[in-house]
Structures are given as C-alpha cells and as structure tokens.
Amino acid sequence: MESTRTHCPYCALQCGMRLSPGAARPVEGDAEFPVNRGALCIKGFTAAELLRAPDRLTTPLVRDERGDLVPATWDEAIGRIASAIRRTQERHGRDAVGVFGSGALTNEKAYAVGKLARAILRTRSIDYNGRYCMSSAATAATRALGLDRGLPFPVADLGEAGAILLAGSNVAETMPPLVQHLDRVRARGGEIIVVDPRRTATVRAATLHLPACPGTDAVVANGLLHVLVRDGLVDEAYVRDRTEGFEDVRALVAGYWPERVERISGVPQRDLERAAHALARASRAFVLTGRGCEQQSQGVANALAFIDVALALGLVGRPGSGWGCLTGQGNGQGGREHGQKADQLPGYRRIDDPAARAHVARVWGMAPESLPDAGASAYEMLSTMGAPGGVRALLVFGSNVLVSSPDATAVEARLRGLDLLVVSDFFLSETAALAHVVLPSAQFAEEDGTMTNLEGRVIRRRVAVDPPAGVRTDLAIIRAIADAIGEGGRFPSDDPRAVFDELRRASAGGPADYAGITWDRIDRDRGVFWPCPSEDHPGTPRLFESRFPTPSGRARFFAVRHAAPAEEPDAEYPLVLTTGRLLAQYQSGTQTRRIESLVRVAPHPVVEMHPAVARPLGIEGGEEVTVVTRRGGASFVARVTRDVRPDVLFVPFHWGGDRCANLLTSPALDPSSRMPEFKVCAARLEVSTHVPPRGGSATRS
C-alpha cells in the first residue's frame, strides 16, 4: 500500500516514519530522515495502534445534572463552554479563565492556543505542560548563551564526537534511535560518560558511570570544573575571546575538590577526574543535560553549571562540539516558542518587551495595551484553582494535568472545585474524566501541521488517514470557541497552512524566526532549521558559530554554588525518591497504556530499590509495597536490584490512580524557571497487604 511520510507522535526526536494504516505492517522507519535513519523504538513501531483504539473518543461529552458524562452535539458542547466562559469572566474577571496547553501540540495549535488566551479571552492565565519539562534548561540557555534551542546543532553531529557527557538522561529508553549516534562514538574508542543515580540501559552502554545522588548535580559539574582548572585543561583562549564571568567561576570551583565532591555526591574521585580529562582530551565533545538534573528546585543552577563545563572546554559554537539539552515532548521545542508559555509571545518573544507586544498586536489586529501581561507558571496557576482571585474555569488541550502535576492529590481537589473544566483529547484521560465538557480531537496521523524537533528542525506532520466521524482538530475546536464568544473574526481559518503563515508573520524578527519557513520548503528539504528570517535564507543548523545573541556577543559563565533540595532524608523519610520514564511507556501513559504490546512489556509501575533497602523490610521482589512521602502514599510492585543506589528509590510516572508517582512528588519550584522538583524528595517504604498484579519485571537483578 502507498505510505505517507510523517513523524512519530512521541518524543522530541520526531523520528521519520512511513505510515500505511491499512497495511499488515503499518509503520516503518524513514531511512532518509537524518535524525533516526530508519530506526524506530517500540513506541514508534506500534504508534498506528492508537488510531484504532476501541475506547477512542468520537463524540463530545458533557456532565449532566446527575454528574455523569453523557454524549452531546458539538453545538451543545461549544455553547456550554462559551456560556460558562462569559459567566465566569463577568463574575470573576478575565484572568479567572485559564488555558493549559501542551508540548505535544503542533506549532499551529500551540500558536492558536496562545492566541485564544491572549487575543480572544484576554486572560493572563495560560501556561503548558512544557513548564514541567524544558523550563529549567530553557532559562539556563537563555541566560548563559542568549537563546534557547534544545540542541543548537544537528543530532548527527553527536556521532562525530570523541567524548559525550550525558547528565540526567537515559536515552537508551527515552530516545532509543539516538543511541546509534552514541554507538558511533564508542566504536571509534570515544568516551560516553553518564551522570545518573541508576545503572540504566544508557549506563550499561557507556564507558563511565558517575552515580551521583539526586540533588547533587551542580556539585558534580563544579567538581569537573575544579579538575579542569587544577590540571590546566581550560581552553583559556576561548574563555578570553568568547565568554565573560569566568573568574568568578574559577574562584568558586576551587572549593569543589574531588574528595569533597565524592563525599557529597557519591561520585568516586578517580572517576570524576577521568571524566574531566576525557572531555578535555577529545578534539570534539558534547555536554548534554536531561530531566534528571533539570526537574529540580535547583534545575536552572544545575543546567548552568554544566553549561559552565562546556564553556570552559571551549565547546559551544565549535564545529562538532557543544552543549545541548535533550528536549522531551514531541513538540517541546516548538511548543515553547509560539505563545503557550506564561511569559512569552510567538517567536520566542518576551511578553514584557514593548516592541514584541507591538509586533504581535499588529499581526493580531489589536492594540498592544490590550494584550494581557505575563501570568503564573503551570503549577502556580493550578494552585489558584477555585481560590479567591484564582482560576475558576480551565481549558486543557493535549495534557493530562492530574497525572503529570506534582502533589496530585491537591491538584485533583482543585480540579474538582472548578466551575468549568474543558478537556480536548483523544481518550478519556484521568483529567478528562473529571471534566464538565470533553472534546474529541484528531490524532497525529489525522491532521496536517508542523512540529519542531529537539534540533530546532521544523518538520511536517501529514494526514495519513481521516479521523473518525465526529472528531475535530484542535484548530477547529479553538475556532468554534472563538466564534461562540463573538470573536470569530480573529480566527479567519482553521486550515493549518493558513495558521502557519500567520505564525510566520507573528514570529518574524523574533529569536525563533520562522518567517522564511514554508511548508513547501519543509517538504523539499526534509525540514528547515530556525532561525530562518527569509525564504532565501538557508536556515541555521548550528548556532553560536561566530557570536552569541547576548548584549556583549559573549557567552556568560555563572558561578553556581550548590544548594540542598527542598526535602532531604531524615529519620521518618530516610530515602531519596526519584522518578523517570520506561522504554515501553510515555508521559502520563494516556496513549501507550492502550497499546497491548507495550502493556505486555510494562504492565504496571515498579519501584526499584537496592537489596540493602529491601532486606530489612523482608522484601524479596514481586510483592506490592507502598512508597510514602510527606504528601501521601502510592502503590508499586517491588523490584530489588543493584542497579540503583542504596539510598535511592526509583518509580516511573506513566500511571494514574493509586499508582501515580506524582501523588508523592514535591511541588517545590525552581525560583527562576518555576519547575517543580519531580526528581528529588524524601520517602520511605512500607510493606503493603495488597495482592500484586500479575506479570511484569519485578525480579531481582
């Protein structure tokens, strides 16, 4: 059968695939797409099963007088939403209506969500789930380098390196097709160094493991810097010519001698020194960060400390070298560029910049002063739900906030207290099950649009199959809401190509400039890298080659003195809990938990613990246990393994209900990025009396 070239619906690699929904083998990797070169992970290969899931939403649902969700017409559902919005804003003010977006939305939909909030609803209350993913790295990159683009170089550059440091990322499970580039490094005798409290699949494929305790990432980075300074390994010419602020860093890291770093972090002195020398010795090297070090109340500081390492080695902007962060969600990059963030306008413009406001207002046909100011971050917005002066009505597009937010018990109570909760999704997620109105939306293979992958490459998502009868795209839903509240003129079309052309105009001249990117160019060139200010511009695969977009043109060092996490272990909670992903599941699991072959691989969440933790409690592996933190408890099947530090528990975050990892996590926020501290909190284990589910990998290893 004829196949359609499109991209995987999951992570930010956005692997190229060929999709033939009616064929015996509906998904194949696209060998011509340079990011994955035909490789796909188990999630990508099974993605077509989402299109025929039996519990797919195909009609709007509204909550009746008995409290049940019942089928409704589109006119009834949209009318109910419009009436509730008008009523809420009349009684409580414009900001009482909130909008919560997603890093899974296409660029066109992310742009439309931001425009809905600011031009139609005129509310400050908007943010998105990327706040839980990329905000710390984005803040750090903007401060140090002047611009945030996950990888400021093509993914394929990684394969040419002599050494790569991965801090807090398990790419072998979260981005398996990327591993082929690491394999090329290792095959040539290069070093792959991984900072992680667990011996993950990525660690097992690495040459060096730095098993840092969660919450000590900046200590490790400063220890690496100490060795670089002590042993004369700093690229002094690069530091002199292309950076500023290094002397403060040089003075600070004098106090992070390797013996002290080992005492705080658990990373052996000899391994720290080996890592520093491997990075310095390589003619080409990369420092990459992931959620492990970023999803913390010190996430920005951690990312800045690793950027310092890359700058001290002269890597950033050098061909075949650099610093980058491994963006998580499918459109985590584009999703944070075009107006979903609480403090941003399209084109990655700051909402408090008068020139930026004037430009976007001109595109939208409104006065700059009528644009709302910056609002609260994602968790802070959710924390106001139902409170005086807070959000009373919430519109959610493509996000399962109940499962993905920290301190989920408190979030559930606030969601239940809303006057209006609207959720647009493919399936009845845990959040949608609480909604007053549920709107069935189109999936990845049922809509056209663009995505921006972790390299800043703008690519095309293409229709391969028609959506089920009764399902609409999010663009059509947003336009219908605008029409119903009398602002339809601001959404003249729900055609994604037309919306993208407006996005190009709105982004023109901004840091993330898409003005020169067209759908035809994307099709011809297999993607175009931003910034691309004109149609005759080639795009920008590699940033920072000649200067940094800072006032001085130089990159900036930041002296990062490490701080303790918001919670540290004590007598009542003696362990450190950290969370993460599994190979066969994704994000909140709304999609992957519906695919039988993925469920067979990971049928339920396990809690990994070291034998030294399990033995005193009589835990052998396979029994159900409860992890308890200061916010409550959640149930998991025990997995006893030496692949985790003796002071650490690990749980995946892909499940809801009483197995939701975020029932446990801390809502402490980074002071700059407002990222919650998903990766570090104090915990204890209790032996449960529940009967464990069958199957799964809960054995010793």
Question: What would you note in describing this structure?
Answer:
- The protein has 701 residues and is of the alpha/beta class.
- Helices cover 30% and strands 18% of the residues.
- It has 24 helices and 30 strands.
- It has a seven-stranded mixed beta sheet, with helices on one face.
- A hairpin with a 5-residue loop joins strand 4 and strand 5 (69-71).
- Helix 8 (217-230) packs antiparallel against helix 11 and helix 11 (258-265) crosses helix 12 (269-281).
- It is globular.
- Residues 691-701 have low confidence and may be disordered.
Mean pLDDT: 95
Number of helical stretches of at least 4 residues? 24
The proportion of strand residues reads 15-25%
What distance separates the N and C termini? 44 Å
Keywords:
disordered C terminus; 30% helix; 701 residues; six-stranded mixed beta sheet; 24 helices; 18% strand; 30 strands; alpha/beta; seven-stranded mixed beta sheet
Task: Describe the structure concisely for a colleague.
By secondary structure, the chain is of the alpha/beta class.
Question: How would the blueprint of this fold be written?
Answer:
Elements: E1 4-7, E2 16-19, E3 27-29, H1 42-45, E4 61-63, E5 69-71, H2 74-92, E6 97-101, H3 107-120, E7 126-128, H4 135-145, E8 163-167, H5 171-174, H6 179-187, E9 191-195, H7 201-204, E10 208-210, H8 217-230, H9 236-242, E11 243-244, H10 246-253, H11 258-265, H12 269-281, E12 285-289, H13 291-294, H14 299-312, E13 322-325, H15 332-335, E14 344-345, E15 349-350, H16 354-364, H17 378-383, E16 393-397, H18 401-404, H19 408-416, E17 420-425, E18 437-440, E19 449-452, E20 457-461, H20 474-484, H21 496-507, H22 519-525, E21 528-529, E22 555-556, E23 575-580, H23 596-601, E24 606-609, H24 611-614, E25 624-629, E26 632-640, E27 648-652, E28 666-669, E29 676-677, E30 681-687
